[in-house]
Amino acid sequence: MKAKRLLPLLMAAVMGASALTGCGKIDKDATGATLNGEEISLGFMNFMAKFQQAVYDGYLGYMYGTADYWSQDMSGNGTDMETTVKSQVAENIELLYLLEDHMTDYGVEITKDELTAMDEAAEKFMSDNSKDAIEQIGATKEYVKEMLRLDTIQTKMQAAIEAEVDTEVSDEEAAQKTFSYVRISKTSTTDADGNTVEYTEEEKEELKNTVDAYVEKAKADFDGAAAEAGYTVSTYSYGTDESNFAEAVIAQADKMQDGEISGLLEDDDNYYVIRMDSTFDEEATAKKKESIVSQRKTDHYTEVCDGYKENAKYEINESEWKKVKFDELFTMKQEETESTDSTESE
Hints:
Elements: E1 2-5, E2 15-17, E3 31-35, E4 38-41, H1 42-64, H2 81-101, H3 112-128, H4 131-137, H5 141-162, H6 171-174, E5 177-185, E6 188-190, E7 196-198, H7 201-218, H8 222-229, E8 233-238, H9 247-253, E9 265-266, E10 270-278, H10 282-310, E11 314-316, H11 318-321, E12 330-332, E13 335-338
Antiparallel strand pairs: 1-13, 2-12, 3-4, 3-11, 5-8, 5-10, 6-7, 9-10
Helix pairs in contact: 1-2, 2-5, 3-5, 7-8
């Protein structure tokens, strides 16, 4: 059968230009920034920024159409989206070149085969896009190759830096308890149309009586009583660093043994009844260990990168960088391709 899919090369490789209206030209040979005295061309920085714009347009275009979201404060940080994304791109370019400068520290190399593959990918990128799209995104084969090279270096450097992290995590550090719980709102309910309806004082009193009766049944048959009452049973795992669940519930859970069912618990907004399923959940503990190691890697990589930045002198040529504008949207191009029953992985 026929199936639509995006070409797998690079996201922007399938992006055609929207209706062009004669955007202002930039001087691609101008200096966009300097890093430790080395110049970075405005042309390359413009391409990196427009590539990122194209990625966003590929997603946001489906939701907002041709609406001018780039001039809006989409993140609520007080700056428009164009300024925010351009700032992120400029920071990323700095990091990419700093990681390249430290490749020898970790024995990271780019092989000839990888460079050949990048060259072929860049060639395909240029051929897969229309002339208007290439002009709009500011691409050259050299810029595409450079982006691929720097991204490959980053991937290898991140893996090498993260490999320094201690991956041993004790059971004590990661130990997780798991309980099942029913949560019942004390303040509101949902009507047939999905609208939230606040309880009256009389309804709150009736609810308290209903919940008290439910609790007595739950002590004998936790799941059955919930099903009979129309309540949802959920599970929750936590450790010694727990701070997200209701404090009164966690305090009670810490006193319970496997299979034990609580009485009625509550906070300002909800009633709870819980059953302690496991005071040491091996599966949840194993997942927590993975999470701890993952966080250690992220923290270490961030720390190393921040150290590189602290010792670097990076200056943006603001007068040139401000000429890079996201005033024309990119549109996604889809192609019809034959598909088998199995999903093709690219």
